[in-house]
């Protein structure tokens, strides 16, 4: 048995010391920080357009366009997030700290992609398309909540590490 164990081999908190350094130095951390609020803004506008269509029956094309744009922003954040995860943790998906977030992300991607396939393939009625979009959006909200929770944990972890370093 090895008597010397580095902090990176046995991480306490969300990130090991080395992972935290890679996260803080990665350009993809900034990219994710920019894309996440953009995606949420597109989502909020789209929810309004979907609700407007449900209530009035008008603005259908605007609702469809907003869902397509939301899906494109989702793809962008998922691709860049996978690159970030590879850079920080060494795996494109399902790294230890983000395993469950990535699992739910797969559902989010599947539902958004199913919407695109159904829309462009003419496979569902407008009401069914909107119901599918709502299901995709509910999964997105759950997933966003997971990531916000991890963001909070990372901030608490960073705060506790800075307190430890200050007292040393």
Automatic annotation (TrEMBL):
Record keywords: Membrane, Transmembrane, Transmembrane helix
Signal peptide segment: none
Membrane-spanning parts: 30-55, 61-84, 104-123, 129-149
The keyword Phosphoprotein is annotated on this UniProt entry: no
InterPro entries the record matches: BCHF
Transmembrane keyword on record: yes
NCBIfam families: BchF (TIGR02020)
Protein name: 2-vinyl bacteriochlorophyllide hydratase
Source organism (scientific name): Hoeflea alexandrii
């Amino acid at each position: 048995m090895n008597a010397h164990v580095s902090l990176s081999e046995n991480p306490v908190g969300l990130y090991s010391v080395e992972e935290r350094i890679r996260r803080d130095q990665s350009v993809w951390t900034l990219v994710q920080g920019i894309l996440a609020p953009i995606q949420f803004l597109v989502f909020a506008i789209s929810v309004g357009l979907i609700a407007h269509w449900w209530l009035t029956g008008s603005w259908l094309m605007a609702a469809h366009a907003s869902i397509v744009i939301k899906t494109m922003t989702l793809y962008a954040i998922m691709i860049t997030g996978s690159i970030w995860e590879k850079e920080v943790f060494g795996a494109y998906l399902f790294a230890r700290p983000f395993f469950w977030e990535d699992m739910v992300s797969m559902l989010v991607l599947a539902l958004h992609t199913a919407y695109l396939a159904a829309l462009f393939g003419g496979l569902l009625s407008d009401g069914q398309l909107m119901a599918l979009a709502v299901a995709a959006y509910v999964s997105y909200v759950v997933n966003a909540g997971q990531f916000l929770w991890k963001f909070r944990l990372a901030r608490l972890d960073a705060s506790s590490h800075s307190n430890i370093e200050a007292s040393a």
